[in-house]
């Protein structure tokens, strides 16, 4: 299918993709596919004001009724899955299966949120005073700003929007300036759900297009109490303090530097499969991509040999081709950064396998590169940085304590895993003295999370949680209620105040 046909099939009109100031290139071949209209920063106050008005109406709509809107969104996404998935491939360069998987993730979170809309529970709490009852009530919080990254151009919005909407919060979405087309197409799908829903307030779900300056308007506004920002640690270090300084609630989902420990007892064939998917899937451009392999010295050489063999067989090329497993990097800048990091790793004593630019058998104009395996003598500064590309650093260890110390000795704390058949090792890894990450797995890789769990990480990953479990609480305000049904007015802690 041509790029134009993919855009048309996803419902984008000529007016939406021409005449604007934001140029959009496809990572597949670098082709210029659209000029999208950017939001005027001067319009941001009115956009935020519309969201505030929508909040006043939406917060009183019963949560199960709010869930109906998300149910309809899920239905519309199911109907549009193939076309939106293909657009994700066109705009973000993901292979077809991963583009479709991203839309499936949107559908999954809608299903989750519909159920949640009937399960927004608070606690009842034992009161120390006779004739009193205590409880917690969860209330809508207000407009939720969503700033998203290029590598999950639509799923991250849906994680936030599906929860925020059932929680009673309007949403203003600023997607990555690299991926506005999938955002416009998703918004059109949302508009169809809104039309079928019927009586949602105007401005309940809005999309703004542009770079950091547009995001900054959401970051700075006191009328946007929740600001969910997904992207680099650099971005989070700017956005987080600004939101905190105005007493807003930041939900930060930032960079990762995810590791796998492979113990002597590990099922190596399974480990190899998990390593390859998590290190080279999405061309190493997932926040949860495997970036560090910490292998026991007794199996390290064997594992590296197996991996080198597997890496040599991976089809690299056009992400639309059914057999391709590694598509392009998002742009040439990303490839340059990968090559520069490999140079730095070499200078620090690393031995690099792979990592060459690929020009044969791939669409011209895209940034295609073979994934790299880099054997490192120690965990150097370069290894401690997140490079958003398929580089896997290999380190060795003798004792599990040493392996866990290496795993934790990076600034980021997103995802982690261990391959072992030894129960003591697995449980130690998951214990308080084990992995310091928000996600810790046993005998599966660090990437490819399901929506049912809370997603997010510690340290420079930002501490935010999205998606499943009780992440919804981040989109609501908790109110503690004490109800006195007695004829007395006793004070807590036995305090006397008689007059
Ligand atoms: P990026 O930080 O360059 O941009 C992310 C978003 O932030 C974009 O929409 C951008 O316009 C916006 N932004 C940048 N500076 C801003 C500012 N000062 N004020 C307001 N908005 C600003 O990230 P990217 O290159 O698009 O994505 C890759 C990064 O995202 C990686 O570090 C990856 O690990 C991370 N990521 C994290 C998660 C997670 O859930 N933890 C998920 C996906 C991606």
From TrEMBL:
It is an enzyme of class 1 (oxidoreductase). It holds the Pfam family Aldedh. PROSITE patterns: ALDEHYDE_DEHYDR_GLU. Its EC number is 1.2.1.3. Residues 20-480 form the Aldehyde dehydrogenase domain. The active site is at residue 253. Homotetramer. Belongs to the aldehyde dehydrogenase family. This is aldehyde dehydrogenase (NAD(+)). The lineage of its organism: Bacteria, Pseudomonadati, Pseudomonadota, Alphaproteobacteria, Rhodobacterales.
């Amino acid at each position: 299918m041509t790029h134009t046909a993919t855009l048309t099939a996803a419902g984008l009109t000529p007016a939406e993709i021409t005449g604007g100031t934001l140029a959009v290139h496809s990572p597949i071949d670098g082709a210029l596919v659209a000029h999208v209209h950017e939001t005027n920063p001067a319009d941001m106050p009115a956009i935020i004001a519309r969201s505030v008005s929508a909040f006043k109406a939406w917060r009183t709509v019963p949560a199960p009724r709010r869930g109906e809107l998300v149910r309809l969104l899920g239905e519309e996404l199911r109907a549009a899955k193939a076309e939106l998935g293909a657009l994700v491939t066109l705009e973000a360069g993901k292979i077809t299966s991963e583009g479709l998987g991203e839309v499936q993730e949107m559908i999954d979170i809608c299903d989750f949120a519909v159920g949640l809309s009937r399960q927004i529970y608070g606690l009842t709490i034992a009161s120390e005073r006779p004739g009193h009852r205590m409880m917690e009530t969860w209330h809508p919080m207000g407009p939720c700003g969503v700033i998203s990254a290029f590598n999950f151009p639509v799923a991250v919005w849906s994680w936030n929007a599906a929860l925020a909407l059932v929680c009673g919060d309007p949403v203003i979405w600023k997607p990555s300036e690299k991926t506005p087309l999938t955002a416009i197409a998703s918004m059109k799908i949302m508009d169809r759900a809104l039309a079928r829903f019927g009586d949602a307030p105007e401005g309940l779900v809005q999309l703004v297009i542009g770079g950091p300056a547009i995001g900054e308007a959401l970051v700075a506004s006191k009328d946007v109490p929740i600001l969910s920002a997904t992207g680099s640690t650099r971005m989070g270090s700017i956005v987080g303090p600004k939101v905190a300084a105005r007493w807003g609630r930041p939900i930060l989902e930032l960079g990762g530097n995810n590791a796998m420990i492979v113990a002597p007892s590990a099922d190596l064939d399974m480990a190899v499969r998990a390593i390859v998917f998590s290190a080279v899937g999405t061309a190493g451009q997932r926040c949860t991509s495997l970036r560090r392999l910490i292998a026991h010295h007794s199996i390290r050489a064997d594992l590296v040999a197996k991996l080198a063999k597997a890496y040599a067989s991976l089809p690299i090329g056009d992400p639309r081709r059914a057999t391709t497993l590694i598509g392009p990097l998002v742009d040439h800048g990303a490839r340059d950064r990968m090559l520069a990091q490999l140079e730095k790793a070499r200078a620090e004593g690393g031995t690099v396998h792979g990592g060459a630019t690929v020009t044969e058998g791939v669409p011209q104009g895209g940034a295609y590169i073979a994934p790299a395996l880099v054997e490192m003598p120690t965990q150097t500064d370069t290894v401690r940085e997140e490079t958003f590309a398929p580089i896997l650093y290999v380190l060795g260890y003798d004792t599990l304590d040493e392996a866990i110390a290496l795993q934790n000795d990076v600034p980021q704390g997103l995802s982690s895993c261990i391959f072992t058949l030894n129960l003591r090792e697995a449980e130690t890894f998951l214990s308080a003295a084990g992995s310091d990450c928000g996600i810790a797995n046993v005998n599966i890789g660090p990437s490819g999370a399901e929506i049912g769990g809370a997603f997010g990480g510690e340290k420079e990953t930002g501490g935010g949680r999205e998606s499943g479990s009780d992440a919804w609480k981040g989109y609501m305000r908790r109110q503690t209620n004490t109800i006195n049904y007695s004829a007395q007015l006793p004070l807590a802690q036995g305090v006397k105040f008689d007059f």
